[in-house]
Amino acid sequence: MMGVEPVGIEGVPVLCTSSRSIGAVVVAVLSWPLAMAAAAEDPPRRPSREVCRLLDDPEVRPLMDAVLNHLLPACGREHELGLIAQSPAAEANTEETNGLDVLVNDPGGDSGVSQTQSETSLALDELTGTLCAGYNDSFHRVQGQGVIGFSRSMDGGLSFTDQGALDPESDGDPSLVWRRADGHFYYSTLADGGVGLWRSSDDCQTFTLVGPVHRGTSDDKEMMTVDNVDSSPYFGRLYVVWTDFGAGGIRAAASGDGGETWSSPVQVSPPNTSVQGAWPVVAPDGDLFVAWTRFASGRMSIHAARSSDGGRTFRQLAPATIDQVRPEDPAATSACARSALNGRIRYAPFPQLAVGPDGVLHVVYSYDPDGAGTGDTVDVFYRRSTDRGESWGRETRLNNDQTLTDQFFPTLAVGASNVVSASWYDRRLDPANLLIDHYRRLSQDGGLTWGENERVSDASTPVYLDPAMATCYHSDYDTHLQDPARALVQWSDDRNLHAGHNDPDVFMDPQPLSDDFLVVPEPWTAAVCAPDDGRYTIAVQQFEDFAEPVALDVEGLPPGTSAVFSVNPVVPPGSSELAVAGTASPGAGRYPLTVSGSSSPTALVHVANITLDVFDVSPPPPILAEPPDGASGVDVRATLRWSAAQQAVTYLVEIATDASFGNVVYSATTADTSHRLNQPLEPEHTYHWRVRGANVCGDGAWPASWSFTTRSVPPLLLVDDDDNQPDVRPAYESALAALGRAWDVWDTDNSDIEPTAADLALYRAVVWFSGDEYGGAAGAGAEGEGAVAAWLDAGAACIMISGQDILWDRGVTPLLEGYFGIAAVEDDTRHATVSGMGSVFGGLGPYALDYPFYNYSDTLTPGDGTEVAFTGDQGVAAVTRAATGYRTAFLAFPLEAVAAEEDRRQVLERFLEACAELFADGFESGNTAAWSATVP
Length: 936
What we know:
Strand content: 35-45%
């Protein structure tokens, strides 16, 4: 049996969202090994015992954040919220510093002891200038309106209007983005153990529920980002990452249509329950980066991964820091029963990522710098990577105080001017290490050098712990961003007194990126073919009405080159065209340059680091490597490999049926030195392939082509669409082996990376099973359904689908209605026995079903022209349909619940025999008159 690797096609696979409300999933059980349940046992109507037991796992519970607000009540342990005695009210030390702190929420409507607004998110509409601020809001929770609030600013953050609660479904961990593709704000939060999405089409005045991103029972700390780069291949794509304690690890989903449909979850981190705090960001080229924290025995590391295919797959990157001491104050940690800082603030040191316009990757994080129980408990640090996370530069300690006080919860932003701004909570002004301020620091040269620490907040505030929130909760993160002129710093503190206690509220203080001017190039990297000139536009941006002339200069020019500015000096705001001539002299290579601007008479200097990529020839022919010349038995979706060609930036791959390449049947462009075909070739055919490099100088020469012959393909494809918890594929393979059948396997890896119509065209029959998969990926996604429909329309096709939660996840889709004949479904009726019926399965059984997981099987209503295939003790359990050129069958119970291999063999044999009869109707003889279409 030959295996078929799961390979995606261009574009993200999508998953149709259900019409069920998010709240319906409180009773769901997913992403957890459930092989202990018997068919007679009623499924739990709350999170499973295994999920609830995570609350007692000393390794897992300390990593849980907002999910506790869902799990504790859902598991009957709401009494464990709060638990820490509140501090008496205390006056804050207030003093205006670097700008006025602006209230983001309106505390006037709060009442009672639960009125915390904290843990912030922020998004900017780049077209209207509207700021949309999100935050946790415990007052709304007490009122039964959810845990999320939001506010709106029309004047760049100088004032805000509190817009109230988001939605009763919202459950904490706010994450806001603005999507350029449609001009809407999007708001993601936890929702009843899973992740939900809301949209504002009126510029942050109101939000409406779009639907679930993922249905879970133990999802936590979701974060969202969006691709807003017009030139990106994934422009407009939304990405959400989160921690799934049930599945173990960081997961991601993507949507290309504004959240209407989502890809199935993809594993980002290696499976592990000791990870938390994922933070995503999209680079200018469309690559998606995610960073998170890995915990182990009082230590911590910051890990990262990159996706270059729109969130379908992820590659692990170099850790930003390894094996550091986890920040913990011993007394606070003991009181909170988890890692905590002084003041009993629970603390998990999560990272934040940003990518500059020059493609440099930036990260901030925190750890204990000098060992547990001594010296500093926590400081904040920064690193940058110029090679897309393959390695990291030197570490910079951002807080430059000389005290042993805490600095924690760092935030990060990089704007179009390549200024890097970071902020954090800071206790340096309080020798007792309790009162909290907010500080910031700027790098005006892309993270190479940093300015001084600056106090942002106007108050040193005490700590108030909300009794309605999880024990020791005092925020988990904040978000700030940049507009063209300012860093929009946002945080929460407890300075205000309300109802006899300190009142946590959200504040913003827009901070200028400069006091005078900045030098901003476009592009940041110029590629030239020698002897052409490298050309840049150098903008001199103005701040605070600064109007002194700025003299421009370039340093680091390669030998033999010269630079000319079209205008010099430049009076801000203004610009100059920079031409770098003589590029034939230094030879090919990457040359870093520094453009500086010096004002007169104040002699202020700002710099920008740009890159000149010089090419002097088109690339030589690459050396082909795999498959070897003349290879046979090559997969129909072959993986081609070759050596790197000098100066090549991209490669063009061609496959032809003839050595002269007069009939090219496949071509693709890639920046890598390998390529897996995104569509299959014909089996048992001989092909010729070649690769050439290209750069700005032009296309390189082709090498001598190589040839290979593709393997034979069996008539049957087994689509493994389960979640491997448990892995049910052996139940099918053992039965097929007993039948003497050959088959291929397409493993979706619990995603919607599914066979295309071209892949399916290689096979006559498909058996598709989803096992215990539930919560999004059971059955075919939108692209997969389209592929199945096209394959069936082409004729000579048979497909059996087996899965108890496909209809729950997908609903009665056009494919299931029109091709499988399902008119309606009653979910979760739980068949205990089934008996074969009709022309295909009549006489089989009755089979007593023994489910290897919880029984959520369904009852079907057949449509017109549809035959009942199996009846169960709860009604119709399966249907089959024969049409011109194809046959289908849908089992609303899992075939693997038929415990005896001999019985499963009979079911598969009956279906495949019915298919063979269909094929024999003129197909084998070549008389295709009865068929609606023919395929080669």
